[in-house]
Amino acid sequence: MKKLLFTLIAITIITAVSFAQNTGIGTTTPDTSAKLEVASTTQGFLPPRMTTAQRDDIATPARGLFIYNLDTECLDYYNSILGSWKELCGTERITIPGNATCEAATISATNCTAGELASGINGGSLGNKYANGAGGGYSVVNIGNQCWMAENIDINPAGSPAWVNNTDTGWYGYNNNSYQVAGDGTLLQWSVAMNGSTTERAQGVCPTGWHVPSDCEFMYLENTLGMSVAQQETSSWRGTDQGTQLKKGGTSQYEANLSGRRSGNDGLFYDLGTSGISWTSSESNATHAGTRGLNSNFTKVSRYFYYKNNALTVRCLKD
Does the pTM of the predicted model rise above 0.85? Predict the structure, then answer.
């Protein structure tokens, strides 16, 4: 009789919860936002546990599929956009499929907020561009899982040290030494771009909560646009149409202006309106650092390591 009574009570509870369109285990009042709520102060939730090999044997895993990896002692989820499993371990973020040179912890993958997309970056340190006194916030754009500035950083060139050829003296200023048009931004030597730091992903001249992107972070950007890992890891002009996608009028709207550069060799300005080259926060040695470039005459994206005494643009990435 007691067994029958218990069964009837259980059926009544399950039925009541089912009518509420969600299910509770350990609670008769599951939260309305949850399809399933497990409540306990003495026990935890135990997901499926398996090795990496067993995980990889899962045929066509669903987007967001979730397991506990016994080999790495990490929670794993399936990212269908990248077509690969990702770990949730401490500072682990995301990595480029197949790219052994880019560890996950070196890549920031953070989307823009709705407020940032609506009004850009406003307020705070460098939150408002100088733009020859015009002010205004920086526009931003989501590409893949990353939130990028859609404009070059623009800082007040007044008081910049005198330009000295062949030396990274901390020089910065506008192309041809005068403000051109909105969106061109400032040309900066690498030491200024990094604000004296030599650490990858340093804030540099970027606003608080943003940083100078690393070589790997640019590779991740290129990967989301279809560039292969083999192409990413080479220098020169790589990919297929990723440059076209990033340029003004392209599908990603990353590049507002092609701002040219100032040579550290002869001190002259080049390629305004034709070429746009941005620093990365990745050094190759004491005198060279990585760059990414777009050109109005090319559909691809360049990857070169320039002398730090050149003055190039900076495009910030959200932490």
Answer: no
